[in-house]
Amino acid sequence: MKSITNLICNHRSIRNFTNQAVSNEQCKQIIEAAQSASTSSFLQCYSIIRISDKLLRSEFAILSGDQKWILESAEFWVFCADFNRHIEVCSNAKLGYIEYLIIGCIDTAMMAQNAMITAESMDLGGVFIGGIRNDIEKAVKLLYLPKFVLPLFGLCLGYPQYIPEIKPRIPWEVIVHENKYHPLNQKILERYNLDIKKYYQNRSNNKRNDTWSQLIKQLMIKEMRPYMLNYLHKQGWGIY
Fold first, then answer.
1. The Nitroreductase domain covers which part of the protein (predicted)?
2. Would the pTM of this model clear 0.85, i.e. be above it?
3. Block means of pLDDT (10 residues each) for the chain, length 240 residues?
4. What fold characterizes domain 4-164?
């Protein structure tokens, strides 16, 4: 077992996989570790849908923006915030509160991170796929999801064909605040922009000339799935 700190700090998204399968025993261990994540009030409000059907994977690859690694990875799982089983236990559950939606997203994300770390401890690699929300209603139909089951993201898992460089994270001094929130330190940001520019220019694939600030300026002015709020309301989420 690798050092947990080194393991976590060496994370990188893997989008190229070998043909080697992931065993059922490995999958079981990954899922058991995922379930061991903290869960608010012991609600355990999540589900994983393992997609082994190649045609269904192809649908998700297209839906997600032609992400071919969904087809090429040994495993593709969809992580869902899931309160359907809670409705079956408590038919008058008041799931319209936004807090339940927040809890479902947090619980699911924490279990997914446990899954990724466990997979990486087995020398597997993976990448999360938020693109399944590009057409969330189609994703729901493809998986026959009942009400109050929300597909949040996919996860490709498999043995890496090659290991890409680690993408530098923003310095910890920017994200850790002492006693109160502090303005962004522009000097630290500028140093980070230079680090990111150097990373993009020197990495093995998809070289570019961007800084982190340039990337943010490109991304944050775009519409971001504007249909999501109406969809959530239609499904009974976040109406209170």
1. 10-159
2. yes
3. 86 97 98 98 98 98 98 98 98 96 98 98 98 98 97 98 96 97 97 98 93 97 96 94
4. NADH Oxidase (3.40.109)
